[in-house]
Amino acid sequence: MESSEIPVEALEKMVVYLPDIGDEDAFAEVVKTLSIYFVEEFPTPSTFEQLRTTSAGTKIRILVDHLVLNVTNSALINALLTLKWHFNTLDIDDRGLNETRANACEIAAWRFLSRISERDAVEFCLYELPKPDSDSDSDAEAAKLQPTEHSSLLPQFRANESSTSSTPTRPPRGRRDELLRSVSHIGGVFADGEDGEDDEEDSTSSFTGLNSLEIAAVADCKSFMSQRIVQKIIHGIWNGNITFWESLTTHTQKKPQFYNKRRSDHFIRLRVPRYVKAFEVLFFATFLFLYYAVLVERNPYHFTALEILLYVWFAAFAYDELSEFIDAGSIFYAADIWNGCDLIIITIGAVFFITRIVGRMKDSDSIVDTAFDILSLEALFIVPRIFSLLSLHPYFGTLIPCLKAMTKDFVKFMVVVAVLYIGFLTTFSLLARDNYTLTEMSWVLIKVFFGSSYIGFDIMYDINAYMGPPLMIVFVVMTQILLVTSLISILSNSFSNIISHAREEYLFVYSIYVLEASTSNRLTHFYPPLNLIALLFLRPLRLFISAERLRNVRIVVLKVTHLPIVGAIWLFEISSGRVHGSVLEFSSLGPLQSTTELIEPAYDGRSSKAAKQKQKPDLSKASIGRSIHNLHDYDIADGRAETLEMKQDDTGSGRTEILEKKVDHLTIKIAELTALIMSQHNNSSEES
């Protein structure tokens, strides 16, 4: 009997050459290394569900196992999400390969986070990419690039600002345009050789200063943002358990950290997103009260005290929106659906103010009445705006993406309706030129379109005795049967498609709001209407005093004016702590689940019951591939103790226990592989 052996060629095909990423590797180098892996290991297209649930995602699981055991580079998640953006922006792809690789990057990112400790996940998600060519000797230049009160939100623009002006302004190019420009050249990372090294760094330079969550928001990584660990981090930022400022002082620097109420300054609680939202609702409630009071009073002859206060609220609201747009950037600002409502409120308020001034100057009652009529339109937007707090609730927040998508489809469909309507309107107006004007015929056709078909039948002979009836029948059939039925079908299909992922949409919008409210580089944030103090009295001081001294003045004024607000926040947190107790939000002892299994939230945000059960030993071909890759990458006999010691030195004793479990798991896999090979050998021997 001859012993059966696995061919060497078959073993080589099963071996996966995993990316080698060092702790000190630059971001561009990490992107290049990972991109090569995804291009080589995903040569065939697969859907998102196939990558997540079938053997098509085996290479992702192998990669995640390798990354968890061997990679501690802080820019890892940034690089994976950047590649997600890059593959999505590649247009030359008729088989869906780029979409497959983009989905693989996103899945690998959240699976890696679910396999490490929660505090490590916080560090990975909030790690901001440093400047690629930063030098440890250039401390003066680094200090010059530190965010100040007037620095841009994107740090990659600060170098240009510091060299051109002492009072930097935000560049005209938006974040999305910059990133589109940069990722369009990331294709150079696939090139080999040293010639493309400079291009690689240039292609990723626009991501400087962004953390992983911001990159995920820019890259539309909605599945990544909806994962439990990511949402826990977002929720920690929302509640103020994770802050970006330690104290409200002149020389403080922005960095993510866990809030320590004994050490941190109480005034930094002004930047907690949930308190910002709470006082925003209070501001709108006062805004709504002044609005109704002015309309009820309606004094056409004098500017009353209530009307002047309403103008103050309009000015404070407009300045706050401008500051928010400058701080957050156009991409984050446009992602919040309520910001569009805010712009309409400001526009109507400005038109009302101008019309009111013109009416008083000309002493025209008709113009003044028109001004108040314009002001009455504000109720259409101010009332929903004050109830925008409901959008943070999962039930109401889930409906908003559906309504948004249905509105887009409705507007697109109305273009077809308008074209047909103009054609019929022209024909009917010419045929009925002796009996109906253009305006009268327009209203008749509008009534027919919205269901009053009997009106069309009543006047079809008045339009034209011979051509009127058949044309009106065609118009009624097209509108009542074809167009209306098609519109209902399109909206129903749109609702069905969006509702299945509406939770992801809701969590994505919620996450963007939290990031928009918390990651700004502006240290001092004045709540409206107190922000008018900074606009009227502090900004003019920029012409006379230095930036550092002005920042100190802003801090003092902020503490004096916002002391009652901070006191209210302090009382709320004290009472809330006594009621709910102190809860440890983030654990540093281990990963979210056992290291021998992967508990991954289902695509709709709900955990799978099967995923919570302990996985049984798997002797399938996929298991053989994973075991062979482990044999290929790790020398168990000689390297276990050295690897364990290295990990213990790098990440502390808390990481040692995790690595020991990983090594034990790897040993079990080797035993399974050996048992399988022996079983195949015995079977072949018996057959022969």
UniProtKB/TrEMBL annotation:
It comes from the Eukaryota. Pfam families: YVC1_C. Residues 132-177 are annotated as: Disordered. Residues 284-574 form the Calcium channel YVC1-like C-terminal transmembrane domain. Keywords: Membrane, Transmembrane, Transmembrane helix. InterPro entries: TRP_calcium_channel, YVC1_C. The chain crosses the membrane at residues 275-294, 300-319, 331-354, 374-392, 413-432, 444-461, 473-491. PANTHER family: ION TRANSPORT DOMAIN-CONTAINING PROTEIN, NONSELECTIVE CATION CHANNEL PROTEIN. This is Calcium channel YVC1-like C-terminal transmembrane domain-containing protein. It comes from Calycina marina. The lineage of its organism: Eukaryota, Fungi, Dikarya, Ascomycota, Pezizomycotina.
